[in-house]
Design brief:
The complex is a heterodimer of chains A (about 350) and B (about 400). Helices cover about 35% and strands about 20% of the residues of chain A. Chain A is of the alpha/beta class. In chain A, the strands form 2 sheets. In chain A, strands 1, 2, 3, 4, 7, 8, 9, 10, 11, 12 and 13 form an 11-stranded mixed sheet that branches. In chain A, strands 5-6 form a two-stranded antiparallel sheet. In chain A, helix 4 packs across helix 12, helix 7 packs across helix 11 and helix 10 packs across helix 11. The termini of chain A are close together. Chain B is α/β, with parallel strands linked by helices and about 400 residues long. In chain B, about 35% of the residues lie in helices and about 20% in strands. In chain B, strands 3-2-4-7-1-8-11-10-9 form a 9-stranded mixed sheet. A two-stranded antiparallel ribbon of chain B has the order 5-6. In chain B, helix 3 crosses helix 14. In chain B, about 65% of the residues are buried. Classes of the chains: A alpha/beta (about 350), B alpha/beta (about 400). The interface between A and B is large, with 78 and 73 residues.
Chain lengths: ~350, ~400
């Protein structure tokens, strides 16, 4: 395999983006930021790949106008996944692995505030048997949390600890849309929202966009002293149907972690893990599935509980984990992305200050 | 663009499957539709779903069926549970792009056996509504795809001096070709006069010069060199390419888009082709409105600018001509949008595998699969061959 690194990352996260739902305008300054970080221009980018959702935009072909943000002519080598930007990053990584290109710019965008997110996401369910019942995202996550509580796998205090740590860390993240730690006791006094979830247990509805630059070998070294070399990148899915899987687990997250860690000596020595957990208890599930060490620092950015722009939230986790390599604060980090109801689909990206294959 | 290193591994199509296409497939769910194509592709590849390493799904807008990211609900039915699952969406070119992403899973060395499926079940929802949601700050066309493309066709006729019956020749040819394809949606003998007698919809596009709206799916099994070598008739992938440009720009040429020209040039170079009309034996090209045949003949470099219609008029794009276009009947005979591009790619593979049945082009050794989407702005193409590529 070729050595490929994350070398650029720019993001915006907002409570409510006041403007065009297609988000193309938000992308222009992010691309400019990536050009500034790398010293490159449009012609240096070998491949473009984006992640977004037509249903979030409430219309078809929502990604088409994002091409306008790249620029006009000449045409670009470009693709799109109807998934989180983390999977766009996966497609771009594949493209670099084929040897066709050396560099890629990956981006994602979404304006969740344009609709009622938890109802929109109910349209991800089985259209013939489940969607007509309109079970919303938060209620499904509440079922998952309740199953874990009843099984004794975690308690409400453990969930509140995740929230407290995340919102305290989010105070230092200029992009967070929600922050402000408190105490476990105080958090547990707040009212239920969807029993056993309180509002702070669920990620806030967030608009946003992000862009990530990938580069192979020497192209990465020309940008960063410490590129975040991808030593493991893997994703898996589980079936959707809630009755056929153990919701207190996430088999696909476990598989992705094992596959991404296999070539890099496992995940126990990961120093920083940015986990895409839109609900507090999901962080607890992911930590266990991934087999992270007890001293791993989880979500120093504040994670998804501080801000969770749809179709970018996972990509941002990878960007945040890469930054810890660049700034020398860690030698091995992990970025994770999830998609689908109750952690159905998961991607793990392990990064290191040293390349894997040479 | 980066030159890259030459680390691409050989890959081949070893299984092709498609559904019977109809306006409404009320006998199957979305999952059933996909499985119909998948099961045929797997049987063709002599493989079971358990052996597949990863699944790549493609389709056009989710609003066509009214399900957000339907691959999530389909995961179990597609055999993807416990496997990697990717979902591609690049407008009308998506079937082609999806095949290319699936091939990159193999060409990168990450997987050995990949199954890719694309579908559209437009009858589940209201496609016209799905395409008509108003967008802030964008001038609405409110004219359907034909209304959008009709001025391009008119412009092509003006620029090239083509006689106005060329589109009818294409429509009559593709509809007649479809009689030899048991999976085609429209299977009816049409003459040039029949087409010219049909109603004018969007001048100069007549009713019989337009594609149908179909439910359907297509699936491919793509495998690495070791697996492909034990296949009786692999279609080796000689080149893949994607190019995109924005919808609108003052300098855009929507009759002969630069993204298409750039894509073709890169494709021929990858495949080691210097004279496409001599070296390509069969072409499955995305022609949803008949006049796109002469336009794409030029855009792809089979003919010089303004010369494409002459190939059509002289019968060179018909079965037995120098460059048979859409021996399967093409998009004009079946258009399950998300699957249409993959059908072009799959039909190209069938041709070089000698497995195209009654619509086989004699002795086809190298074939083109082509798809485009959006406002003629997204392009996906591949060349497949009966022989393993030497480069």
């Amino acid at each position: 395999m070729r050595d490929v690194a994350v070398v650029g990352f720019a993001q915006r996260q907002l409570q409510d983006y006041d403007g065009s739902p297609q988000c193309a305008e938000m992308l222009v300054p992010l691309f400019a930021d990536c050009y500034e970080q790398t010293g490159w221009t449009k012609k240096d980018i070998g491949f473009w790949c984006s992640g977004s959702s037509d249903y979030l935009a409430g219309r078809s072909f929502s990604f088409v106008s994002a091409i306008d943000a790249i620029g006009v002519l000449p045409p670009v080598n470009e693709s799109h996944v109807e998934m989180d930007a983390a999977w766009a990053l996966y497609e771009a990584w594949l493209k670099i692995q084929t040897g066709e290109v050396d560099t890629a710019l990956v981006f994602g965008f979404g304006k969740a505030s344009a609709g009622v997110l938890r109802r929109t996401l109910a349209l991800q369910l089985d259209p013939y048997t489940m969607t007509p019942l309109w079970p919303d995202t938060v209620s499904i996550a509440a079922l998952q949390a309740r199953l874990g509580l009843d099984a004794g796998l975690w308690d409400e205090a453990a969930m509140a600890e995740v929230v407290n740590r995340s919102l305290t860390d989010a105070e230092k993240n200029e992009f967070a849309v929600r922050s402000g730690g408190s105490s476990v006791e105080e958090l547990l006094k707040r009212p239920m929202f969807a029993d056993p979830l309180r509002k702070h247990d669920a990620a806030p509805v967030t608009d946003g966009a992000a862009a990530i630059v990938l580069a192979a070998g020497d192209r990465a070294r020309e940008v960063r002293d410490r590129p975040a070399w991808i030593t493991g990148l893997s994703h898996f899915t589980d079936g959707l149907h809630l009755g056929t899987r153990d919701l207190t687990r996430s088999a696909s997250a476990g598989r992705a972690g094992a596959a991404a860690g296999a070539s890099a000596g496992g995940l126990t020595d990961v120093e920083v893990a940015e986990l895409h957990a839109p609900f507090s208890h999901q962080e607890l599930i992911l930590r266990a599935e991934l087999g992270l060490g007890t001293d791993a620092r989880i979500n120093p950015s504040g994670g998804a509980l501080g801000g969770n722009p749809m179709f970018t939230g996972g990509g941002i986790r990878i960007g945040e984990a890469a930054r810890r390599i660049w700034d020398g604060s860690a030698d091995k980090t992990l970025g994770h992305a999830t998609s689908g109801p109750a952690l159905q689909q998961n991607l793990v990206c392990v990064m290191s200050s040293e390349g894997a294959s040479n | 663009m980066g030159a890259g290193s030459n680390s691409k591994r050989p890959a081949a199509v070893i299984g092709v499957g498609q559904t019977h296409h109809r306006a409404k497939r009320e006998d199957v769910s979305m999952a059933g539709l996909c499985r119909e194509a998948m099961d045929r592709a797997l049987a063709d590849a002599q493989m079971t779903l358990d052996e597949v390493d990863a699944i790549v799904v493609g389709k056009a807008p989710d609003l066509f069926e009214g399900v957000m990211m339907p691959e999530l609900y389909l995961a179990e039915a597609l055999g993807a549970a416990g496997k990697p699952l990717l979902r591609v969406h690049t407008a009308g070119s998506v079937g082609g792009s999806t095949a290319i992403v699936a091939s990159s899973l193999v060409q990168s060395g990450v997987h050995k056996k990949v199954l890719t499926v694309s579908f559209e079940k437009q009858s589940e929802s209201n496609a016209m509504w799905a395409l008509s949601v108003p967008v802030p700050f964008v001038m609405p066309v409110h004219a359907g795809a034909g209304g959008y493309f009709a001025p391009h066709v008119r412009s092509y006729i003006r620029r090239s001096g083509a006689p106005t019956h060329i589109g009818a020749i294409v429509a009559a040819k593709d509809r007649t070709n479809a009689l030899n394809n048991p999976y085609a949606h429209l299977r009816e003998k049409k003459t040039v006069d029949d087409v010219l007698a049909s109603q004018m919809l969007w001048d100069p596009i007549r009713y019989e010069e337009t594609c149908p709206s179909s439910d359907g799916a297509c699936a491919l099994v793509i495998a690495d060199e070791d697996v492909a070598r034990s296949s009786p008739n692999p279609a080796w992938i000689h080149g893949t390419v994607m190019r995109s440009e924005p919808t609108t720009a003052a300098e855009r040429d929507q009759v002969n888009p630069q993204a298409g020209r750039d894509a073709a040039a890169a494709l021929w170079k990858q495949a080691g082709i210097t004279n496409p009309i001599e070296e390509i034996d069969a072409a499955e090209v995305y022609v949803p409105f008949s006049w796109f045949e002469p336009m794409w003949l030029e855009n792809l470099g089979f003919a010089g600018e303004g010369e494409g219609w002459k190939l059509t008029e002289s019968g060179e794009t018909a079965m037995g001509g120098r460059i048979p276009f859409n021996a399967s009947g093409g998009v004009l005979s079946s258009n399950p949008i998300g699957a249409s591009g993959m059908l072009r790619f799959g039909e190209a593979a069938l041709q070089v595998r000698g497995a195209a049945g009654d619509h086989q082009v004699d002795g086809a050794r190298r074939a083109l699969g082509h798809a485009y989407g959006g406002g003629s702005q997204f392009f996906a193409m591949w060349v497949v061959g009966a022989d393993k590529p030497s480069n």
